[in-house]
Write a structure and sequence with these properties.
It is a single chain. The protein is an all-alpha fold. 71% of the residues lie in helices and 1% in strands. The chain has helices at residues 2-22, 31-41, 48-59, 69-86, 103-107, 109-132, 139-151, 158-167, 175-200, 205-232, 235-238, 244-247, 253-257, 259-282, 289-299; strands at residues 96-97, 100-101. It has a two-stranded antiparallel ribbon. The longest helix is centred in the C-terminal third of the chain and has 28 residues, at 205-232. It is globular. The relative contact order is 0.12.
Length: 303
């Protein structure tokens, strides 16, 4: 476990360095927005999505890691924009994220909204530029990756899930709708990360579909664990307020099913994801110990 944590820290630091390379310089008349973008992106974080993308690429023996790097950067920017908007007074009204003040507490609500907008559009600019500049033989894969990157965070994915979540805040949520919210709001971005890794490694549509299912299971386990931590976690360890869902009168997996079932479901979803992943690589004797350790870490985390 100690070795994994050291390796995770090294890989997360490499993602940080990658983000530093791509983020715009803080200069010019609009430098405030560049500062606000950097403030939230470089606030720390687990870098789960870019790591899942690269490690899935490596699992499928992808060769040119430079193809993945712009997409790793883009997905983290998209994830960060969603957090900025989640924290706004009109949504979750949280003052702390990743152990420090949220964007709207530092830059004001208007600039926080613009920082989220800027990160979303800049993420697509980074990925599209990489796709446009790719070698001819890589362009079909880059185009497919771009399609996933634009679809999964959008109205049929993360944003769609967030819409339903916001509309039903303070109201009872039926079980099928709760599943819908979790699948779109959280799981779709994890699916996107892993699918892009597989696509850029040159995997078939059939394999990418299996990876999408594994990503769904990981995303469900991850969000359920998040609900558990909101009930049981330590605010100092989490770096954000606990009981936020209770404050906002939100239905969670724990309130819907109870703590015992929530813990059981985390294990069942994560076990199914691992089974699918191992099955896709079994005939080719594929392996990536870090990828499987990362999945285990995600669903068993305390922060």
């Amino acid at each position: 476990m100690v070795m994994f944590k050291e390796e995770l820290a090294e890989k997360a630091a490499a993602v940080d360095a990658l983000l530093e390379r791509y983020l715009p310089e803080e200069k010019g008349y609009a430098k405030t927005i560049f500062s606000a973008m950097r403030y939230s992106v470089m606030a720390g974080g687990k870098r789960i999505r870019p790591l899942l993308m690269m490690e899935t690429f490596r699992y499928f023996q992808g060769e040119n890691e430079k193809l993945v790097e712009p997409f790793m950067t883009a997905i983290e920017m998209i994830h960060t924009y969603s957090l900025i908007h989640d924290d706004l007074p009109a949504v979750d009204n949280d003052d702390y994220r990743r152990g420090r003040l949220t964007s709207h507490k530092v830059y004001g609500e208007a600039m926080a909204i613009l920082a989220g907008d800027a990160l979303q559009s800049y993420a697509y600019e980074v990925a599209a530029a990489a796709a446009a500049d790719a070698a001819p033989e890589d362009m079909p894969r880059m185009a497919q990756a771009m399609k996933v990157l634009t679809h999964k965070p959008g109205i049929y994915g993360m944003v769609g899930g967030q819409v339903v979540d916001v509309e039903l805040t303070g109201k009872p949520i039926p079980e099928d709708v709760l599943h819908f919210i979790f699948e779109l709001k959280t799981a779709d971005m994890i699916e996107a990360a892993m699918m892009i890794g597989a696509i850029l490694a040159g995997e078939s549509q059939e394999t990418v579909a299996q990876i999408e299912k594994a990503g769904l299971d990981i995303g469900m386990a991850f969000q359920i664990q998040d609900d558990i931590l909101d009930e049981t976690g330590d605010e100092a360890v989490l770096g954000k307020p606990v009981h936020s869902d209770e404050k906002n009168v939100k239905t969670t997996w724990v309130t819907a099913y109870g703590m015992e079932k929530a813990v059981q479901d985390v294990r069942e979803y994560s076990d199914e994801a691992v089974r699918i992943l191992r099955e896709t690589g079994e005939s080719r004797h594929l392996s990536n110990d870090f990828l499987f350790a990362l999945i285990e870490h995600m669903v068993g985390r305390k922060r």
